[in-house]
Prior knowledge:
The chain has 226 residues and is of the alpha/beta class. The protein has eight helices and twelve strands. The strands form three sheets. It has a five-stranded parallel sheet, sandwiched between helices. The protein has a four-stranded antiparallel sheet with strand order 6-7-8-9, with helices on one face. Strand 8 (143-146) and strand 9 (149-151) form a beta hairpin. Helix 5 (107-120) packs parallel to helix 7 and helix 6 (155-166) crosses helix 8. The mean pLDDT is 86.
Amino acid sequence: MIYYVEDDESIRDLLLYALRQSGFEAVGFSDGAAFCEAIDAGRMPELILLDIMLPGEDGISILRRLKQDGRTANIPVIMLTAKGSEYDKVLGLDVGADDYVTKPFGVMELIARIKATLRRAGKLSNRRQFSYGGIVLDDESHTVTANGTPVTLTFKEYELLRYLLENEGIAFDRPQLLNGVWGVDYFGGTRTVDVHIQTLRQKLGPCGDCIETIRGFGYRIGGKAR
């Protein structure tokens, strides 16, 4: 179950629809009061999407209370906000947000980041195997093969490949991949992504061509950008 606190009805309805189409149960709230009533009633979500600019109590204040409450302290929270300043991002992360997405955002990117956050929190029922174009990643045995040949990857190479396969057909720019794989608290440059993509392609041999470069944007595996 995902709780989404957003006062803009059109944005809220659009994202709730997308979440449900992606297989998630999702409930929306127009303000902090309605959200807190659901929490006080004991209906706990697996993840919370929380806007900062809300009528009444703002998102940062709600986040502080969530992290101070033993019932909700460990529930992952992704902040969604029109504010894009470094200060707002750092403030949200310092208070305890697990990720921070600035409006306007791509719905498919957000769903990918929701999956990554849930996976890191151990709350997502993971698929055990991913495959595309001769690449097979088995998450149970933590192995990768390319055209049947075993491939040895570092931990981050494996996580990057898994992220791309899990989100087949979605194009990500470098900051999105950095956040999705390395996490929002990683302060290295986006060049890290390029280096890992290069080594991944080399190790995958001919199957490395499955990782497509989107000129002037980033990378994807399979399909067309959505």
